[in-house]
Amino acid sequence: MKIFTSIYKYFYILLCMIVTFLNTQAQDSTMLKTPIASDTTNKKLNMDAVYNRPFLITNKAPIAIGGYLEANTSYVNKNGINDGFNFQMQRVTLFFSSTISKKIKFMSELEFEEGTKEINIENAILDMELHPLVVLRGGIVLNPIGAFNQNHDGPRWDFINRPLSATQIIPATLSNTGFGLYGKYFYQSWAFGYEAYLTNGFNDKLIGNEKNRSSFQEAKEDKEKFVTSNSGLPMFTGKLAIKNRKIGELGISYLTGVYNKWKKNGLVFDEQRTASILAVDFNTDLFNNKLMINAELATAYIQLPAKFSEVYASQQMGTFIDVVGTVYKGNILGWEKAKLNIGCRFEYVDFNMDTFRDTNAKKYDDTFLITPSIAFRPTGSTVIRLNYTLQQEVDLVGNLPKYTGMILFGVSSYF
User: Fold this and answer.
1) Which residues pair with 99 in a beta bridge?
2) 243 exposed, middle or buried (CB, 10 Å; 0-12, 13-18, 19+)?
3) pLDDT, tens digit (0-9, with 9 covering 90-100), for 325-382
4) What is the C-alpha to C-alpha distance for residues 156 and 239, in angstroms, rounded to an integer?
5) 219: closest CA among 252, 178, 260?
6) Does the pTM exceed 0.85?
7) Chain-centre distance of CA 80, in angstroms?
8) Nearest to residue 376, comparing CAs of 365, 366, 368, 387?
9) Cβ neighbour number for residue 383 with a 10 Å cutoff
10) What pLDDT does 221 receive?
């Protein structure tokens, strides 16, 4: 593992050298900060988020480079106990893109979380366009389940913490090695898109982990997932999306695959068990982009072994709704197009929707969260955020809930 860490660090140093080279070249070339468009239209879908970012480009360099950072401080009080203020470097992400030739593009994203505690390649994709409706994609793919998993960049959100349902039910950021197709079609004010991929999948930690609950987040933490499949069978992820510029975008996505190791050296020693996630997402901008709504609902289904421990769930559900309004837009402290937003996020996750076998009584393991937010955006690519989160947790048997209050303040920006 130390070898891989060293490789990543050398790779990071190499990228820094490239950026320095580009800055030097800017003295005698035109340098622009601009998004690399995924197509020739402005009708963007959530699936375009991977390319719809600001990049640093020159007319001499073969690649475009960009990135973002998230840093914040937190004060957490759990049942009257707190550990004071903590400053956190949540993540620094580097992404780079290259147009290899006509209709062939490369894109990759390298993320450093919590300083260098975790270093991950979130995606590394090669796209080959045969037709706008048929684009081949291969590499490390962001599985298109829900909307947040692909559209997760910190500067795009007025909330510091990622939605609980999008990190625990859908374990964002979820990516796997695989291949597939995507495409888009436009008609007047309508846009239609689809994605379909076969990739490596989850592992046995889905129902065998230290959390003592069914956990897709634990199941995705597989150091070998980019080179091997735990089950030896591909996982399928597909999504359909439709958008109207005046109404918003609606997406329906589905993920399914065998998660357990059921065969070794050609010998079958267990039955195949599947895990699936069905998700629906919606987003819209109202009143000339003054009111923004983002919502996502995900339901997970896990096939358990017979008479398995009842702390593990065969069905889970999670949802979040973000409502953000712009209360002022104009000149603030010299920033001519600054925005002041207020918003609120509502979240609910049910980690166990089953009933107890003997009594048929309901299982709980529920979490409710509400997060008011104030955000200042001096530019569209930078946000300063103040959040307060009130969280209520109910254990498996429905005992009195536990409460957690969190004050979060931080900044996130593309660079």
Assistant:
1) 105
2) buried
3) 999 999 999 999 999 999 999 999 999 999 999 999 999 999 999 999 999 999 999 9
4) 22
5) 260
6) yes
7) 32
8) 387
9) 25
10) 86
